[in-house]
Design brief:
EXOC3/Sec6, about 220 residues, mainly alpha, about 75% helix, SNARE binding, 2 domains, 8 helices, TNAP2 protein
């Protein structure tokens, strides 16, 4: 953030006050822009090659795909001049792809584990001597559907905020995780139906879970 702010502010000064003092052939802005970019890119590469936590990988990818090319280089004062310089990306393509894979693997695993824990809690609720909650007069097990849908949607949105391609790849991966989760849910529900017929709230729990189907669809 400090480097980005410094680069943006300093290049703005170069455009407004320094460039007019030199003949055009000196390419003053290009010189400054390339030096700042090369330093910024070297630091980004250094960070990318070190051990990064998941949140740091996300932040670095956001800089590479989003903040740097869109917020900084499309700045209304700098955009026209930067377009002439052709600075390139903050990271080499191979390193960027490597980070993207780490991020996608981690995000997929996180969402998968989150869905699994949510289902475990739901199954535990079925075993309690407690009637399911009602929504608009109907038994619902709505927290499960809401949590699952929000988890997947939030994951897709975070990935899409990095880049369209990363968002599409995560959506493709999650399109396999959701059916797997729904199968686990169905298997657990069938097991409950078979083994818990003497449960005090057997029928309301069945109705609540059947009502979940609409939400998942």
């Amino acid at each position: 953030l400090h480097m980005g702010k410094t680069m943006k502010e300093d290049l703005t000064v170069v455009v407004k006050y320094i460039k007019p003092l030199y003949p055009p052939e000196f390419n003053v802005f290009s010189t400054y822009a390339e030096l700042y970019h090369n330093y910024f890119a070297s630091q980004a590469k250094k960070n990318a090659e070190s051990h990064l936590e998941d949140k740091d990988i996300y932040l670095l990818l956001s800089w590479v795909h989003n903040i740097y090319p869109k917020d900084m280089r499309k700045d209304h004062v700098l955009a026209e001049e930067l377009e002439k310089v052709k600075l390139g990306s903050l990271l080499p393509s191979s390193l960027s792809k490597e980070l993207e894979k780490k991020y996608l693997d981690s995000e997929e695993a996180t969402i998968k584990n989150s869905l699994s824990r949510c289902l475990d809690k739901e199954i535990q609720r079925w075993k309690e001597d407690k009637e399911p909650e009602k929504l608009n007069g109907h038994f619902q097990s709505e927290l499960l559907a809401i949590f699952v849908i929000q988890s997947i949607y939030s994951g897709q949105k975070r990935a899409k905020d990095i880049s369209t391609a990363v968002g599409e790849e995560l959506s493709h991966r999650l399109s396999k995780e959701l059916p797997a989760f729904l199968k686990s849910y169905k298997d657990a529900f069938e097991d409950f139906k078979e083994k818990s017929k003497k449960h005090r709230y057997y029928k309301p729990i069945l109705i609540a879970n059947i009502n979940n189907c609409w939400n998942f669809r």
